[in-house]
Design a protein that fits this description.
The structure holds 2 protein chains of 2 kinds.
Chain A: H1 5-12, E1 15-16, H2 21-29, H3 36-39, H4 43-64, H5 80-100, H6 103-114
Helix pairs in contact in A: 4-5, 5-6
Chain B: E1 2-3, E2 8-9, H1 18-26, H2 40-44, H3 48-56, H4 60-82, H5 85-101, H6 112-131, E3 144-145, H7 155-171, H8 174-185, H9 190-197, H10 201-221
Helix pairs in contact in B: 3-4, 4-5, 4-6, 4-8, 5-6, 6-9, 8-10, 9-10
The chains are: A mainly alpha, B mainly alpha.
């Protein structure tokens, strides 16, 4: 005997009763599997101003001695210091893409983000 | 200084330039928790968004509470999608890791269920792209908790229906199956499903209707 249409919808709403012990152990492990740097809450937010400060310092040094300038990371019409700042500004949305896009969309967006 | 959203209080100089302020935090001083109100019981009363705020503030118990709520819906969603229990648990762990990693950049802009199923959909899509929908060769049959309306149905009959449902879901396209599960299994509305699948609300409604219709046609055709 097969389910009637209402029973069919109820069947779809069923939920797994107990995950396996191995799953529970792996889930408990997630917050503890980090390095000491990653354990610090807000580390990314804290490092961002440091990265921007470092990039501005680098840009300043490069502007004092243009002959030592390396190839810019982003090709375009922006000055090297703006490009460094832009690169660090882009880093945050690209990290967010890790969560909110599947691999194919991610690759496409990354391509357009860094396209000259 | 106090982070209002998390209740964490840290002692930090407020007039440092950004660079020195960063060094202060990087040194570990900024991570010192002076007061953190709320135990497991308090966490159980919090909404998912608030648990993410607590998690961002460093309360790992909030992660445990969050996944006590979401692990079963996620495993059920993955299992009905791919008919492989081990893989369903693995994909749920993948979602859990992503949620944990995203704790600092999480912003409560939509319903939490939409956000977590966006992550789940991406994990599922990547997995299906990688290997297709191949039911496990060594089938493990999980124990289910059914709605009250099925309480009078015996276990043998339910087992039979489970087999039937697995076959019926396999006949749907990936998109139909996913919309059916997000809508009927997880209770998301078409307007919540639409951004997850990058479709319009009306398109979701049409596909949901088609999926239901195809399931019923299969039901009518089967003996």
């Amino acid at each position: 005997m097969k389910p009637d249409p209402e029973q069919l919808e109820a069947l779809l709403q069923a939920s797994i009763r107990h995950p396996s012990p191995a799953f529970e152990a792996a889930l408990r492990d997630i917050p503890t599997r980090r390095s000491s740097l990653l354990a610090f809450p807000g580390w990314r937010a804290a490092l961002k101003p440091l990265a921007v400060a470092a990039s501005l310092t680098l840009a300043l040094l490069l502007s004092l001695d243009p002959s030592s300038s390396p190839e810019p990371v982003l090709a375009g019409s922006l000055s090297p210091e703006s490009e460094w700042v832009e690169l660090f500004t882009l880093a945050e949305p690209l990290l967010a893409l890790e969560d909110l896009a599947d691999s194919e969309t991610r690759l496409t967006l990354e391509y357009y983000a860094f396209m000259p | 200084m106090r982070f209002a959203a998390t209740g964490r209080q840290v002692i930090a100089p407020t007039h440092l330039p950004p660079f020195l302020f960063t060094l202060f935090f990087a040194s570990g001083e900024g991570g010192k928790v002076v007061a953190f109100p709320g135990g497991a019981r308090d966490l159980a009363d919090l909404e998912d968004h608030a648990l993410m705020e607590r998690l961002r503030g460093g309360a790992e118990a909030a992660f445990t509470e969050l996944f006590n709520r979401w692990k079963r819906p996620l495993i059920s969603y993955f299992y009905r999608s791919i008919a492989d229990y081990q893989l369903a648990e693995d994909l749920t762990l993948q979602v859990a890791r992503k949620v944990f990693q995203a704790r600092e950049r999480y912003r409560p802009t939509a319903r939490f269920s939409s956000w977590i199923f966006q992550i789940a959909h991406n994990a599922l899509r990547d997995e299906i792209r990688r290997r297709g929908r191949q039911p496990a060769t060594e089938a493990y049959i999980p124990e289910w908790e059914y709605p009250e309306s099925l309480s009078t149905v015996g276990p043998d009959r339910l087992h039979e229906w489970e087999d039937w449902l697995e076959g019926a879901l396999a006949l749907l396209t990936d998109r139909e199956r996913e919309i059916l599960l997000l809508g009927l299994q997880q209770g998301l509305s078409p307007s919540e499903i639409a951004p997850i699948l990058k479709m319009t609300d009306n398109h979701v409604r049409v596909v949901l209707h088609t999926a239901r219709k195809r399931l019923l046609e299969h039901w009518k055709a089967s003996t």
